[in-house]
Give the backbone structure.
Amino acid sequence: MGLQLRWGVCGTGMIAHDFLTALGTLPADQHRAGAVAGKERDRTQRLASLHQARMHDSYEALAADDNIDIVFVSVLNLQHYEITKLMLEHGKHVLCEKPMGMTHKQTQELVTMARARKLFLLEGMWSRFFPAYDALDKHIAGGGLGDVYHVNVQFGVEINDIERNLMKDLGGGAVLDLGLYMLQLVQWIFKKPPSDVVCTGHRSSAGVDESISCALKYPEGKTASIAAHTRVAMGNKAEIVGTKGSVTLDYFWCPTALRLSAANSTEWTLPRGRFNFHFHNSAGLSYQIQECYDCISQGLLESPKLPLDESILLSKLADTMRSQLGVLDNEL
């Protein structure tokens, strides 16, 4: 019998439910829901029972559980660093929801710790693992767009009524909730770091970035523009422009279709879970869950599709953006 990953989940929110539902669509001989930990006993018990997992009253208890191999961290943004660190200290592999750290400093520390302890660590940028990304990557690498010179991405969702997005001390804001998805796409296309980043935007009365508009300059004449808003819905598409044409990626952060031309279109069907999913295309979480298995079973400590050095770069860029918006806490 091959490797079976015994998963622990920290957090009891909607994303934790969707994660466990997606986990249930994968082969049982490779993945098992082991335990759920949360701060509210009733919610933790309900989630664990629904997904046939054990429950722990604390994250510390889950960290000490010898029957858990890997932990999915899905707590509030501000807690990602401390919970991921706790799990690494106890010898657990970790898949952490983005952002892995609130700052570059925190992200770098987690990466350094994981590497020193020879543990697998992955930032949960689930976009990277959708088949549409693989197909588009092959198309671009094969010269289908010629030389790509510009990427334009918009991401607007009305989320200002969600408390964690309004509260600075909960780690909310447009950059960390939406901007990272756009940044990862631009970096995936251009590979190299930008040589210049210029951002503007609005802060809410609570001091949280509720909108952002950003221009990025890359080597060799390449550019990108990204815009995010938490007050209005936007087109939520990415346009990738090259010398031989362009591609528009709908739902760029979780795409299930790729239309390269009128005659070249592909759609992927997401797996059906035992329970309903809360978020759009959440069944696609199964792709990043399987990536964890594939990497660990091959002895890899990071994913080639999202190397840890890239997570560090993304955290640096997020720091730059939030600093220009005046929302970065230097003490973190």
User: Anything to note?
Assistant: The first strand starts at residue 5 and ends at 10. The chain has two domains: 5-127, 131-267+304-325. The radius of gyration is 19 Å.
